[in-house]
Structures are given as C-alpha cells and as structure tokens.
Amino acid sequence: MKFSPLKKVIIILLLTLSAIYVILPSKIPVKIHFGEFDIDKTFTRPGLDISTSRFSINKDFELILGLDLAGGSHLVFEAKVGSLPDAERKSALESLRNVIERRVNLFGISEPNVQSSSFEGKNRIIVELPGVKDTKEAVNLIGQTAQLVFVEIGTGEEPSFGVQTDLTGADLKKATVIFDKNTGKPVVQLEFIQEGAEKFANITERNVGKPLPIYLDNVPISTPVVQEKITGGSAIISGDFTLNEAKNLTVQLNAGALPVPIELVEQRTVGATLGAESVEKSITAGLVGLLMVLIFMVFAYGKLGMVADLALIIFGILTLALYKLIPVVLTLPGIAGFLLSVGMAVDSNILIFERLKEEWKKRNFADALEVSFGRAWDSIRDANIATLVTAFVLANPLDFPFLHTSGPVRGFAITLSLGIAISLFTGLVVSRNLLRVFVKEKKND
Amino acid sequence: MINWMAYRKIYFFVSGIFIALGIFGLLKWGLFLGVDFKGGTIAEYKFQDSISTEEVTQKLEGEGIETSSIQITGEKQYMFRMSPLNPNEKDKFKNILETADKSPEELRFETVGPTIGPELVKKTLYAAAIASIAILLWVAYQFKSIMFGASAILAMFHDTFMLIGAFALLGHFFGAEVDFLFVTALLTTLSFSVHDTIVVYDRIRESQGKFGGNLYDLANKATTETMVRSLNNSFTILFMLVSLMLLGGSTIKWFAVALLIGTVSGTYSSPFVAVPLLVTWGNISKKVITRK
C-alpha cells in the first residue's frame, strides 16, 4: 500500500497527537478567573485499561523517575561466599537475592528493586529503595543474617555449653508481633510447620524446668524457661524489644535467613528536594537549549529550518511518550542522553539541508529533495549505527557480567539509543514528508 | 577549493600541543578522583544558617572522622568529603552537624567502598575496548578499507585523550572531579567522535565512486563540503550542552563540561585529525608499494 505524502503527514500528526495524550500529566488543574467567568477544576487524563479474557493492558502513562531524581537509597551489598564450594555458590546467591527481596517487600517499601551482579569473583546484591532516606534501619533489616536457633542446655554436667537443636528458622511457618498481656510489651510469636511443631514438642518435653535459650545470629535474644511440654506448635520470644525491633525481626524471620553473610559496600542516598531541584534545573536547561536550537535552525536554514523545528518538536513528543510507554526509568544522566540525542536528531536535518543546498543549484526543488535524502542517507545510516553500537555496549541489554549492569552509564545509554532510533524516523520520514507537502503547495501557488 | 590538506603538519602540531599539555597535567597532578573511584563518603547538607566549617571539622576530628574537604555548593549548602563512614559513624556525624545547626537537611549521602573503583575502571575499559573494536570493524567494512577504520579509531583516541588531559588540568585548577558521570561522558565522546568522522569519510567514499581521483584531492573536496555542516551541527549540540552546564545544577555541571570538551574535540578531529591521518597513511602506503 502506498500513501501520498499528504496522507503520511496526516498519519504522523495523528501519531503525534496520541503521543501528546500520553505525555500529558495525569491530572491537569485548570484555573481561570475572568470577571464573572470562573473555572476551577482538575481534568483527569484517564490511562489505558483494557482487559479481556485473554489479555489485559493497564497503563497509567506515568513517567518513572530514577532514585537520583525522585529521591531514595541505592545500597550495594557484597556476599561473603568465600567458604562455599563453587557448585553451591550459585544457588546460595540466588536464594540470597530472593530472601533480600522478600525482606524488602515485607518491609513495605513501594516498588523496590533487587538485583544481583557478579564480577571477577565478587558477588553483589544491589537494592534500590525509592523514597527511603533513613538507610540505617533498612541496612540493618536487610543485612542481618537472621539465623534462628534453639539451644538445649546440657544435662547438669556442662551447663554452660549448649547443644544446638535441630529446630531452626527453617521450621517456621510464620512470625508475628503480638503484645504481652501482662507487660504490654511487644513480643514475637512463632508458629511452626507440622514437622517443626513435633520437634518443638520433643525438645520442650526433654527440657521441662530448664532454660531453652533462643539465639539470633549467635547472640542470645531470649532465655525462656520451659514450664511444660508445648504441643500447639507455637512459641513466644519475649526479648526486650521495641515495637520496631520486633517488627523487623518478624520480617527477617518470615523472609528466611540469609544463606551467606553480606556486607554493605556502597550506599547512595539522595533526598527528594535535591532530586526535585535537579529535575527542575535540567528541564529549564533543556528548554533553553532547545529554544536556542530552534532559533538557530530558522536563522541558518529559513523555511527549511522551520520544517526541521517542527520535526524536532515531534521528535521530542514521541521520545517522551516512548519513555512513558516502555517505560524507561529516567535518571539525570538519562536526561543528558536525551538532550544529546536532540543534537543528533538535528544533525540528520542539517546533513540533508546542506545536501539540498548543493543539489538545488543543479535541479528543481522537488528532485533536489529526493536526491539529497537519498545521498544523505548513507552517511546518516553509517554514523548512527556507529553511535548505536557504542550505546548498545554501554546499555548492555544482554547483561554481560563484565560490563556495566546498573547505574548511570546504563540510564544514559538507553535514552541515547532510543533517541537515535527515533531521530532516524523523524529525520527521514517526518521532515521528508513535511517538505514534500510543503513543495506541493508551492507548485500550486 | 581550499587546500586543507596542505596544512596537515599544523593540525598535527596543534593536537600535539594539547596532548602534551594533557600529559603534563596527568604526570604532574594526575586526575582528581571522586569517591566513585577512591572510595569514601560525600555528604551534602542544607542548613538553616551558615555554619563555621572550621568548628565542624574540629568537632568531627574529635570523634575520629577525618574530613578531606568541605565545599559550599549553594546557599547554606555544604558538601563534606570523608573517608568511608559506616552506619554508626554516620550517626555520630549527624549528631555533630545537629550541634552546629538546628535542623540540617540531608540532601545526599554517598558511601562507596574501596573495592568499587577498580571494578568501575575495569568495566569501563572492557566497554571501551569492545566499542572500539566494533566501530573499527564497522567502519572498515563500510568503507572497504582498514585504513579508514584505523584512522577513525585513532581520531577517537585523540578525543578521549583530549578529554582526560583536560580533566587533569580542570581538576587541578577548578576541582573538577572524575566520577561515574565522567566515565559516561568519555564513552559518549567515543561514539560522537566516530559519528562525525564517518560523515566526512562518506563524502570521500561518494566522490571516489563518482569521479575517482587521488585521495589528497578527494579529502580536500570532502572537507570543504562538510565544513558548514560540521560547524552547524556542533553549534546545535553546543547550545544544548552550554545551557546544561550553566543551568543544569551542580550535580551535572562537570558532566556537561566533559561532554562539551568531547564534542568540540570530536568536531575538530574529524576534518583535522581523521582525514589528515587518512591522507598521510595513504601517502606512506603508496611509498611502500612503489619501493617494492
């Protein structure tokens, strides 16, 4: 099917309009006071919510900001796997990641991100916590191994030496915070799975009248004295907890113990104010820069420049819409990548226009236009592929462990490559068809 | 047509001077490495009132926390650089700040362990090496000559070296830090440099196919034809980067400067390093062939 340039322009405009819909903020407050005329209401832009029996699409078109813009904490832990044989290392790291993820989720942080990375024998877990500023509590919660053991005190002869029982945190079904009826203090209630309940009944039977210390990571947290055999499958740890401590302990117990100890090696916290300031400043900088580019293009290429400007604005709208649709997590370097791709998008137009100026001397405008697009294409293709290659290596979409797997380099590369891809479209399809239509009108004159 | 290639020695001389300056800076002062490379803590706080940095430094020293510098980053806004703090030391640090001011607001707190830096360097080198090889192969394939690929890559190394050298000087005189963002700028320079070079090479390739002729004349023709485009294109990128540098805020300022240096060098190196290299290479290989 072949479309005329005019039809193509209409399709492009429709595409742009739907992209504008996507990039609008979800709530638009409108306040107009004009004499008697008084409007004060907020328009809500509905998102996309389609669900059928087969699939469901639910997008609210929100721009996702990275930690450096929205505020939050980025923590990197190193796993101490030194003692483990190679074969067990991989599964230990996998379960380490899972346990940490469960802990973070149970802690109630919205949209946390937990990923693992390995590089030259160093194994890391990267935890991203949006909106969390008090990292101390988070670090303690995540970093504690939470190895729970019950210890039997030997029968009189060596009372100081305990014997670890076979009842551990792995036998737990659930841990909850409840309040002691007598003291009103928070205590942690443990419920065992069937097997654990049997073990617990046996242990308590053997130890009636004796203390049964409970150790967490080799530190005694409670030393209850067994009154009678407990068959119900539940126990209570009444350490001297604050409410928060008790809560965190249940989170750790419910998520399971860490298979290997970990150590915090990197911590980055950005407050929401600094993030908001960065967003505001880079938007201002971007708009000022863009405006200068737009003016420059008109100044350098006249009417052609205006067409390029229109194409550039369409480029900006489409790119932002794609950020929301994919969605791309936008970081500060990501914004820089976007601004740089604006420069590259203009470049395609400049290349074509310089060509057009040359060809125009030899033939009429319409022919010159087609010839220049054809000739400029070679250099645009080769140059942009070279840039895409670099961006691809930096973005590392295949997650090669020897390249950057997270962080600012990646954010930058993703927005840059998206920008280049879209700029190829706007440079070659959008400006070309806009110019074709523009030329036709000229002929009709 | 301007005989650009007659002045090859001048271009090489100019580049040589800048590279020598860079080497001098690197040897004398080295790069001013940030916490991303060295490990350490940087903390940025906003206070209600101005604080006495000397007093705070002394108090911190009393608690065993060495501050290597305190920098004013904005109105009543200070950035502290220290050796890496663990969570307990961070508490101490915060308590001391609270004695200096009623309610300090934490804007940023970053602690990087000493093992992160070497890893960052290695990963960056791998990325640069892979990207360079891929670009070399792509250019050599598209232009059907290893000479084109190698000259483009040499011009690319020229630009990255310019940037590194410039940051040795900027680091010494203006405290520009080499951090994660600098690495990003460096890698972008790789791609931008080649992007620009390919545009000029494309003209040589096109004229070669159409008119033939020797490389020297083709190079002059291509340089003339692409000069306006190169200038106009760098102007638009400069507009974006200068506004980012001036208005983008303190976090991104040196990043924009780094990209700016990379862009300027990348634009310069296409007609004045990559193409002259190509011509010189062509001359040498011709001589070698005739001697045989």
UniProtKB/TrEMBL annotation, chain B:
Gene that specifies this protein: secF
Key word rRNA-binding present: no
Similarity-based family: Belongs to the SecD/SecF family. SecF subfamily.
Subunit field text: Forms a complex with SecD. Part of the essential Sec protein translocation apparatus which comprises SecA, SecYEG and auxiliary proteins SecDF. Other proteins may also be involved.
Free-text function comment from the UniProt entry: Part of the Sec protein translocase complex. Interacts with the SecYEG preprotein conducting channel. SecDF uses the proton motive force (PMF) to complete protein translocation after the ATP-dependent function of SecA.
Membrane topology summary: Multi-pass membrane protein
Gene3D superfamilies: Multidrug efflux transporter AcrB transmembrane domain (1.20.1640.10)
InterPro entries, alphabetized: SecD/SecF_arch_bac, SecD/SecF_bac, SecD_SecF_C, SecF_bac
Subcellular location: Cell membrane
Main location: membrane
Entry keyword set: Cell membrane, Membrane, Protein transport, Translocation, Transmembrane, Transmembrane helix, Transport
Protein name: Protein-export membrane protein SecF
Native source species: Candidatus Woesebacteria bacterium RIFCSPHIGHO2_01_FULL_38_9
Pfam families per UniProt: SecD_SecF_C (PF02355)
Record field: transmembrane: 12-31, 124-141, 153-174, 180-201, 237-261, 267-284
GO molecular function: protein-transporting ATPase activity
Gene Ontology CC, one term: plasma membrane
